[in-house]
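One such given next:
>
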Amino acid sequence: MSILPYALGICMLAITVSMLLCLVRLVMGPSIVDRLLALDTLFLNATCLIVVLGIYWASASVFEGALLVAMLGFVSTAALARYFTSGHVMD
C-alpha cells in the first residue's frame, strides 16, 4: 500500500485552493501591482499543478507542458510589469 496517491491528492487540493484565492485577488485587487502579483502566482500555481498531475499520472510528456506554462508566465509577467511602469512593452 502506497501513500503517494493520497499525498498527491492533498497536494492537488491545496494547489487548487491556492489558485482560487489568487483568482479572487486578481479580480478584486486594490491596485494593479496586487493584480500583477496575483497573476504571477497563478502561473506558478498552474505550473505546480501540472507537475503534480504529471507525477500522479506517471506521464513524462506533461512536464513539457509545465515548462511551457512557466516560460509563458515569466514572459507575460515581465511584459506586463514593463507596460505598467513605462506605458509600452517594446522600445
